[in-house]
């Protein structure tokens, strides 16, 4: 995929990420988005490179668009779950999702950061649950978060960090809680042995991709320069025809 028009995403999602048709996908998006749209399991070996969050959110939002109207309207159990190691990343994921889903009708997102969030929000029903691994692990253990009913998409971001923090059992429980027909994406900077074993046990014929940090930064810089040039051109045209 070299252009967003080749991504397979719905027009409303392309409009959200590339409103003027002049923004090229970043490297992680070029490889991850088409695979996500195909609902293939994925292991992405990459640092926190630019565009990573959108790379996994866009296919996930497409998945929600494809869910049955009954599942979307019932909203009794989540259609997708995103697991991250800390509060800062969880909050960032929600901010990016709000921007990318702005042309979608009423996508309900719950951010689970502590036990109060779990008690107050899980009972209301949400299409997407975003939360820290420790809190979502407790929700699985207490059966306040049920994933087997309708959750077709699970994303583990910074998975190696969660393993290093000692949350192997929580991740295992979440993976076991998924239905048979589902998509799992794992984003990780390194591949510890325990994480590799988790992926082997629970991912179905996953595609493995790797994105170099320096290459990604260089391409992001080029994209930023291109955007500045386009903005200058638009400003000049506006003055010309004013």
Automatic annotation (TrEMBL):
Recorded GO MF terms: ATP binding; helicase activity; hydrolase activity; RNA binding
Annotated Pfam families: DEAD
Stored PANTHER family: ATP-DEPENDENT RNA HELICASE DBP3
Listed transmembrane segments: none
UniProtKB keywords: ATP-binding, Helicase, Hydrolase, Nucleotide-binding, RNA-binding
InterPro entries reported for this sequence: DEAD/DEAH_box_helicase_dom (IPR011545), Helicase_ATP-bd (IPR014001), P-loop_NTPase (IPR027417)
Phylogenetic placement of the source organism: Eukaryota, Viridiplantae, Streptophyta, Embryophyta, Tracheophyta
Domain Helicase ATP-binding as annotated: residue spans: 33-209
PROSITE patterns reported in the protein's UniProt record: HELICASE_ATP_BIND_1
Name under which the protein is recorded: DEAD-box ATP-dependent RNA helicase 21
């Amino acid at each position: 995929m070299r252009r967003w028009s080749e991504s397979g995403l719905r027009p409303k999602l392309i409009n959200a990420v590339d409103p003027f048709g002049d923004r090229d996908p970043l490297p992680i998006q070029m490889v991850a988005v088409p695979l996500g749209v195909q609902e293939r399991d994925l292991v992405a070996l990459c640092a926190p490179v630019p565009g990573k969050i959108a790379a996994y959110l866009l296919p996930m939002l497409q998945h929600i668009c494809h869910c049955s109207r009954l599942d979307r309207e019932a909203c009794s159990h989540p259609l997708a779950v995103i697991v991250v190691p800390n509060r800062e990343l969880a909050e960032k994921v929600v901010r990016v999702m709000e921007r990318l889903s702005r042309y979608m009708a009423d996508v309900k997102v719950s951010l689970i950061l502590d036990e109060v969030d779990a008690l107050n929000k899980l009972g209301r029903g949400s299409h997407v649950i975003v939360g820290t691994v420790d809190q979502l692990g407790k929700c699985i253990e207490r059966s306040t978060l049920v994933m087997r009913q309708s959750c077709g998409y699970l994303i583990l971001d910074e998975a190696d960090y969660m393993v290093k923090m000692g949350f192997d059992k929580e991740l295992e429980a979440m993976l076991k809680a998924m239905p048979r027909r589902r998509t799992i994406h794992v984003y990780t900077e390194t591949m510890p042995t325990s994480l590799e074993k988790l992926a082997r046990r629970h991912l179905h014929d996953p595609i493995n991709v790797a994105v170099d940090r320096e290459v990604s930064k260089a391409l992001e810089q080029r994209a930023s320069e291109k955007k500045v040039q386009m903005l200058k051109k638009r400003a000049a045209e506006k003055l010309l025809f004013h």
